[in-house]
Design a protein that fits this description.
The protein contains five helices and seven strands; from the N terminus they run βαβββαβαβαβα. By secondary structure, the chain is α+β, with helices and mostly antiparallel strands.
Length: 194
């Protein structure tokens, strides 16, 4: 398992999964994303994005957003490594502080993120938080981490090394009873009565 930059040809895959998971696709650019890949069969397991805001009246701001892990890959450290790569990229871009506006605040605290008051957010992120709450994630809260305080707990590294897809249980087939039809008593449109 490894994490790499997204490729242009993966744009449709990203957009499909972002929509499926109800994540933020505002100002989508595939080049802003990273993707976790299973090295054995090249299956995609998760993704995430850094978004850099450049307000007219202040310094640039870095936000982690649209972080998702496919259901069959959850609880195996995939999300932790996606976040780690994004924080590294933010650091490479010169950001010492990274923000996230998310409902998954308990998950992010494991890596050193702290919940902060809305008033302490840069004005542009205050606007983003309101947009997110109104349109995508009503339970979003502001989080921040300083690069020096970010860490991935060892348990996530071990899980990531041995990650493999859990096969989803097959969907049960629909039956007549699921629709309130008694199959022994029902007549059908073309039933000739014979």
């Amino acid at each position: 398992m490894y994490v790499r930059d997204a490729k242009n040809r993966e744009e449709v895959w990203l957009l499909d999964h972002i929509e499926e998971m109800g994540l933020d696709e505002t100002n989508f650019r595939s080049r802003d994303y990273v993707i976790a890949i299973d090295e054995h069969d090249d299956r995609k397991a998760g993704f995430g994005r850094i978004r850099i805001h450049k307000p007219d009246d202040g310094d640039p701001i870095c936000e982690l957003t649209s972080i998702g892990v496919l259901p069959e890959w959850r609880d195996q450290g995939v999300g932790a490594h996606v976040i780690e790569r994004l924080v590294e990229y933010a650091s490479d871009e010169g950001f010492d502080v990274v923000y996230s506006l998310t409902g998954a605040d308990r998950y992010l605290t494991q890596f050193g993120f702290e919940r902060i008051a809305v008033e302490t957010l840069p004005p542009r992120l205050q606007e983003r938080l309101e947009e997110k709450k109104a349109n995508i994630q009503p339970d979003a809260v502001p989080m921040r981490v300083e690069r020096a305080d970010f860490s991935v707990p060892p348990r996530f590294r071990e899980r990531f090394k041995n990650a493999s897809a859990h096969e989803a249980e097959p969907e049960p087939e629909d039956t007549a009873e699921d629709f309130g039809i008694d199959p022994d008593e029902a007549t059908y449109k073309y039933d000739t009565g014979r």
